[in-house]
Write a structure and sequence with these properties.
about 80 residues; mainly alpha; two-stranded antiparallel ribbon
């Protein structure tokens, strides 16, 4: 909620701590989303670079890995494995 005061004909709003808390939470959520998207992009780029025999050595079906690599960065992983570094 914003506090407001009137100066002549203009109303001036001041942020309250609840507004700042909301903005902070929204910024943190956007940052987490950006980090997840960057992670997806990097993993999919790395998948594209791996040879089929390396994918099989790691326990992945090459066709499934290539399908995953072609997905957009905003889509969730479908390989059923976490791609942690």
């Amino acid at each position: 909620m914003a506090a407001s005061s009137t100066l002549g004909n203009a109303t001036v709003s001041r942020s309250t701590s609840s507004d700042l808390g909301l903005l902070t939470r929204a910024a943190a959520a956007l940052r987490r989303l950006f980090v997840r998207w960057m992670h997806n992009y990097e993993v999919r780029r790395d998948l594209e670079r791996l040879d089929d025999h390396l994918l099989r050595d790691a326990g992945f079906d090459p066709r499934q890995a290539h399908v995953e690599a072609s997905r957009p960065f905003w889509a969730s992983c479908t390989l059923g494995r976490t791609w942690d570094r």
